[in-house]
Every structure is written in structure tokens, then in C-alpha cells.
Amino acid sequence: MSIKTIILAAGQGTRMRSSRPKVLHEIANKALLQHVYETSLSLENNQIFIIYGHGGETVKQTLSSLDATWIEQKQQLGTGHAVQQAIHHVDDPDTVLILYGDVPLLKAKTIQTLLHKVSLTSLALLTVNLDDPTGYGRIVRDKDHAVVKIVEQKDANEVELQISEGNTGILACKGSQLKQWLSRLSNNNAQNEYYLTDIIEMAVEDGLSVETTQAGSQDEVLGVNNRSQLAHLERVYQLEQAQTLMEKGVTLRDPARVDVRGSFAELGQDIDVDINVIFEGTNRIGSNVKIGPNCLIKNASIANDVEILANSVIEDASVGVGSRIGPFARLRPQTELADHVHIGNFVEIKKSTVATGSKINHLSYIGDSEVGSKVNIGAGTITCNYDGVNKFKTVIEDGAFIGSDTQLVAPVTVGKNATIGAGSTITRDTPENQLTLSRSKQLSVPTWQRPVKLEK
Fold first, then answer.
1. Which residues make up the binding site for Mg(2+) (predicted)?
2. Model pTM?
3. Does the pLDDT of residue 153 top 80, yes or no?
């Protein structure tokens, strides 16, 4: 079966009260339109067309990586008119699937069920039963429960307004039939628009049956029209991700307080995640990893038996087996920690490697550095890697001990098993197995007196 998917993404979204096109608003750091695109991408033998309009160039440029044919709807004259813009790409034998760029949580399984109902004698329609169908077109059925038409909210009479079954707008049919129906559309309605929903009545008139199916939940087919609905679907999506993590064996202290804004390339066993943890990008997390509250983990590789304490940030970095990070630590991009490394509170590491068994426990900045094994870096140590124009490298060899409040002015190398006295500013390479320090001689002045406040 050849599928042509047409995603309607031309709406202005005035109720969002935003200068950004509606379909570019995000759930889990991903545009609404991209969610729909990725779901449709899972269909085999499928070609995707995106109809854009309001803020169209912004939409097209922002999502230029999508493998789709972009078609502009220069005038927004209704959903039927939008589909007409792509109809010349449709061949008669094609199955045409109509989706909406602001319905982000639709499942591939639901689409497959819908597509299986399409034939030369039937059109497939996705409907939803609602406690409050306000704003939805109503599904009108005859006494035999067969669908006869869809009536839009503004065109419905009092009886039709009582119908609780609503139209999601999502449908599928054969290309040959869709071409005929689109050519017969009229804008003789309250909105003066060409409604795609009018093809339902045409299909019935042509002797086709309208086969309906429903999604697993109302939220799956909910469109985003305002900020409240966007926030609601964000929570729905995040609870789905939390459920998936728990099914894979991850312990979540509170499933309602974890956000997954990406994916996992690897998940080990017995991972424990505390509250308010955010996962972004693509992460690899080994077994027996414990992540404390309020952490951000982004594009990270976390090995087995790692403990990440509260309020830590790990971005584009790797952490070796049995290491401990935090609290309040930050691992910036291109940081690589070997096994059994300790990174303590208020330590920031950037574009550096730290070898096995080394410790940087307090209030330090290590940037553009190569730290050997079993190194101990004292509190308040800074690698001065930037001269205002260029970055330079600091090398700290195996077994070195760096005293507190030390500045290592790069480029500089601290030799193997060297000791740097506290409070030193090191500007030249230091020898192995020796104490190096640079500080002024300590003096005590017995004749000095503390100033006193003068009387007025």
C-alpha cells in the first residue's frame, strides 16, 4: 500500500497569543509538528507532505531537517482548501492520510488501525467521545448507527449540538475518491471556508461506508489551541515516558516529577531517580546508578554504580564506573571521567579528562585539562585556561596533590607525585616528587595596632 500523508500545519493559532507559529511550540523540547512527523515516519511506503501557512518560512526553516515535501497554503481558506494544495502529488491508487500538526500525541498504532479500514468502498475516520464536545464537529449517524455526515459547531442545530461524538479531523481514503470530493467542495457555510469534513457526506452519497475507529484516550487526539492545552499534553506525555521507564525497571521516586525530553540509548538495571530530574538529548545510563533530586542529565554516558547527588548538571560528558558527582556539580561538554572519580560540591569541569581514582571535591574550576590518576585537587583550585583570546591546556600528572586556593596558569604541567602548596599561583612546569609553592613570606608585625573609630 502506497501512503501519502498530508500534515496540515498552516493554522495561525491566535489563542496561543504568541509570535511563534503554533506548530513550533514544544512538548518535551520537540515541536508539535515534529512529533506528528516522526509518528507518520514510522509508516512503511509513506511519503509526507506538510502544508504550511502562518509563519510558514519560520516553520520550514526551523524544521528543515524533516524529510518531507513542503507546500505553502498562501490563503487560509479552510482544511479542504489546504488538502487541495497537495492533491496533484496524489496518485489514484494511493491511500491518503490526513493528519494535523497540532495533534502531537497520536500513536502509530491508532493510525495503523485507521489505515486498515480504508478500501475502495470505505473511508476511514477517527472520532472521539467527549464529555464536552464544544468546538468539535459532530458525527451525525442514522438509525442504523452509520455515519452520514459531520456538522461543524457553528453550523450545528440544537439537536446536533447534543451529540457527544466529535470529529478529530484525522481520516484516510483512496486518492481517486479524494480528488473527486475535493473538486466538489463549497464554502457555503458560516465560516465561508472549504471544510474537509464535507467529504464525509459526499462519500455517503457516493455509496461508500464511513468506517470509524477511536484512539486509546481523548488526550491522544487532543489538538493544542492554547497554553493550557499545551501544558496539559506535556504532563500527559511525561507520564507516558515515566511509565515506560518504570516498565524497563527504573525506580522513579515520583513519576509525576521527572521529565524526559529525549531518548535513552541504554538503560541498565536498578536505576534510582529522585524528584525533578530532567533527561535531555540521548543518554546512556548503566546499572545501579542513583540520581539525586533536581539534576539535569543531557547527552551523557553514565557507567555502572555511579551516584549523582542533588542539583548537579551533566551535559555531553561521560562518567566512569563507581564515580560520585555532586552535590551542585557541573560537568560541561567534552568532560570525560574515568572510574572511581569524585567530583564534589560547586566543582565545574569543562573539556577535560580525569583519570581513575582522582578527587576534586570542593569549589574548583578545571577547564581544558588532563588530570592523571589518584590526583587530589584541593578546594578553590582554578585552571586559568584563557588569556582573553586563546585557550591553553593544563596537565596534572598521576599522584599529584594540589593544595587549596591554587591557580594553575596554563599552559602548565604539574609533574608526577608533585605537591603544590596551598595558595600558590603556578606559572611554570613543576618537577616530579617535589613541593612547589609560590607565595609571599608570612610576617607578623608586633608593633601594629588595629584602627579604632574616631570620636566625633
1. 102, 225
2. 0.91
3. yes
